[in-house]
Amino acid sequence: MRDEPAPERLFSMFRTFSSRLREDLNSQVLAALQGKGVVHVTAVAEDVRLRNLDENVAREDIEYLVVQTAELYGAAMEFDCLTIAEIIEVPCPATPASEQG
Fold first, then answer.
1. What is the pLDDT of residues 14-37, one digit of tens each?
2. Could you give the CA distance from residue 65 to residue 76 in angstroms, rounded to a whole number?
3. Of 31, 21, 13, which Cα lies nearest the Cα of 70?
4. What is the spatial distance between Cα 45 and Cα 66, in angstroms, rounded to a whole number?
5. Taking Cα atoms as reference points, which of 75, 79, 65, 63 lies closest to residue 34?
6. Is the whole model's pTM more than 0.70, yes or no?
7. What does each C-alpha distance from 49 to 36, 80, 81, 84 come to in angstroms?
8. Which long-range contacts (CB under 8 A, 24 or more apart) does 53-58 make?
9. I need a surface site. Which of 69, 77, 88, 93 has the fewest CB within 10 A?
């Protein structure tokens, strides 16, 4: 008989985020939407990350939450070149060739 992992271990790869981080993220998305009419995903994510350094969350994880929140509000989103390059796994044309992997 094979040992089956406990159900809580199956989902250990999914990260939970604090309510403080989520509230901060939500207010930043709303502020960007009300101020500029567009949510700049990378800028909002980095701002939230810097204000919540003690939680040690990667910017990419916060970007994912920003996109989810912006979609919830039906907001227009702006992505920078590096974010798009990471999503489709190609070099960003704005990155110098010497820095491309």
1. 568 999 999 999 999 999 999 999
2. 15
3. 31
4. 6
5. 75
6. no
7. 20, 17, 19, 19
8. 55/17, 55/18, 55/21, 57/15, 57/17, 57/21
9. 88
Report residue 30 as tokens: 């709303």
**Contacts by 52-60, CB closer than 8 A, 24 or more apart:** 52/18, 52/20, 52/21, 52/24, 55/17, 55/18, 55/21, 57/15, 57/17, 57/21, 60/86
Cβ burial of 64 (10 Å; 0-12, 13-18, 19+) is middle
pLDDT exceeds cutoff 70 at 95: no
**φ/ψ (deg, to 5) at 72:** -60, -40
Residue with tokens 């985020």: 17
